[in-house]
Amino acid sequence: MTSVPYLVLAVLCLSISSTIAAESGWVDAALKFLVEGNKVLQVAEVGKLEEAIEAYKQGVETLPAECDKSFDKKQAQIILSLHTQLGQALSYAGDLQSAIDSFRSACICQREWSEGGKNEALNQLASKAYFSLGMAYQESASSATDEGKQREQLELSVRAYGHATKLDPLYWSSYANLGVILADVGQDGNGNKVESLEMYEEGILAYQKAIDILTGADGSNSIPTDPPENVREVVAELQYRIGLCLVPYLFSPDSDDETGGEDNERDCTLTVESKPITRSCLELAAYQFNRAAQYDALHVGAQNALVLVTADASFGMSTDVKKVEALFEDYASNFESSLVDELGYNAFHRMRRGFDRALAQENESTEKKFLKVVDAGCGTGLAGVEFRNISQSLIGIDLSPKIIEHAKTKRPGLYDSFQTGDIKPILRDYAKQPISLLVAADTFIYFNDLTDLFASMKDGIGEGGYAVFSLENVSEESEARLNAIVPEWRWQLTPSGRVAHRKEYVEDIAKENGFQTVLYDKLDNFRAEKGEGVRGHLFVLRKDSSLKKDEL
Asked: pLDDT of 24-42, one tens digit each?
């Protein structure tokens, strides 16, 4: 996996207007050096850094020795700004410890003044001082060679960012960087594991808070402090990082098991649209990576991570018959109009044409009558209409009782009988009175691993019998990513909850169960998804029990 960089969050150059009135002897001199240093620092030339540092140091030397609570707001602003700007310049120059000392001086003064009632007026300046201090500790931790020292600096960074968010609740970048310290995942630019406190639940909360501020989901209707120009790209990065926090073991360079092992069985709880949802951690991670890709289609990390967690996925609707049944029970009344009129579904027509071609290749008549035809996942009868004229007996099977009732009403007499339930045990029950033709239009897309399904087909379909079915394929872009990242992939769980299978996997498992692939055809644009054509497969198989034995 490519490295996960720290969020680059620039601190805006603080400036104080030269119109501030001089009410004490030191104010004029301090303000003069502050303005001078700011002008030099804003030029952003490396050679000018020393001039800025010298100006700020001279300004600091003019300040009173103590942070007197009697200072007014304007005087306090000058003091905070000088310490913070000096720290910023020292940080740019690479003098990290001196920068930390300067930021701490600003923060100490803020704490003194907060007791004197000036905290509200100075919160924005003070929050930037704490934010800068957090970044300095963060940088110090990344360069520390001692593990104890590293953790100490990370914990100090957390405290600094925490103070920044308390002083300014709209400081999104403080929450974002806090998330990085708590739960960064992946590798640095040198391929080493990034260091964090590995507090993933807390990191997720920090990232979510930053997202809420940037998107207005916090309900404040307020403008975020220092909002980024590329809000969607930043939100995508934050969504991506939440996904990493859900399955950190998959992206850690020192992980012993890249597949996740027992970790893949864990459940996580994530707040989605203000509601806590508990699901498989992998499923929630896939949701987050998909959201990141929706915010920024060019986010390569999110695209690659989505491929990694959805390849050969064993979670989601495809693993729960009850979820699929509930989906179609709710969908029953609008099933056909939505599928055909809105999504342009046409697989059932193309399946029949493909099956006729397969029969011709096998030197069989396209008008041949099949004794027992089972339409698995029959729905309202779209595929049944296509195969009725070659069926002596046509049986419709579906998980949804409501959809079967719609089929009876919409196309009375089309089917000779119906069965309701899970197709796998129903197919096995046909072993004594085998099926001559199994039709499945977009039914198998709700299965991930096809092992049990094809074993049931082997039991239920008679020798020489056929199976014709459609499957979803991954997009060309996803296929390229899968081949590069998970070369041996077999299927991919799609954002819709359906499963897209690999052609070679289907052919292999068919062969293992004694089925010969008589015809394969691409079934591109057989349905639309969000306005885009979906790629698909058309398979026609014939049962030949001698096939596997001969090859062995």
From this structure: 578 889 999 999 999 887 7
What was the pLDDT predicted at 122?
Answer: 79
Tokens of 445: 């897309």
> Residues with Cβ < 8 Å from 501, sequence gap 6 or more?
444, 445, 450, 471, 472, 473, 490, 491, 537
The 10s digit of each residue's pLDDT in 317-354 is: 666 777 777 777 776 677 777 787 777 889 999 999 99
Q: What's the chain's length in residues? A: 552
Alpha-carbon gap, residue 83 to 34, rounded angstroms: 10
Q: How far apart are CA 11 and CA 92, in angstroms?
A: 11
Distance CA 7, CA 452 (A): 46
Tokens for 107, please give them: 């923060």
In Å, what is the CA distance from 60 to each residue of 63, 85, 100, 132?
Answer: 5, 10, 15, 18
Q: Smallest Cα–Cα separation from 235: which of 307, 176, 177?
A: 176
Which residues share a beta bridge with 236? none
E strand intervals along 264-372: 267-272, 275-280
Contact 345, 526 (CB under 8 A): yes
Residues (pLDDT < 50) of the chain are 1-23, 257, 549-552
Sign of the CA dihedral with 513 first, then 519, 525, and 528 last: negative
For the beta carbon of residue 209, count every other beta carbon within 10 angstroms.
21
Q: What's phi and psi for 273, nearest 5 deg?
A: 55, 50
Q: How far apart are CA 278 and CA 56, in angstroms?
A: 53
Cα 493 from Cα 254, distance rounded (Å): 27
* Helix, strand, coil abundance in the chain, percent, nearest 5: 55, 15, 30
Q: Which tokens belong to 471? A: 């499957």
Residues of 192-206 as b/e, b for ≥16 C-beta within 10 angstroms?
eebbbbebbebbbbb
What are the distances in angstroms from CA 69 to CA 212, 215, 481?
Answer: 36, 38, 61
Cα 443 to Cα 165, 173, 450, 454: the distances in Å are 51, 47, 12, 13
Cα 117 off chain centre by: 44
C-alpha to C-alpha distance for 134 and 517, rounded to whole angstroms? 62
Token output for 427: 């197919």
- CA separation for the pair 325, 398 (Å, rounded): 9
In this structure, what token pair is assigned to residue 474? 């991954």
Determine the Cα–Cα distance for residues 469 and 443; give it in Å rounded to an integer: 8
pLDDT, residue 115, reads 62
Is the pTM value of this prediction over 0.70? yes
- DSSP three-state, residue 280: strand
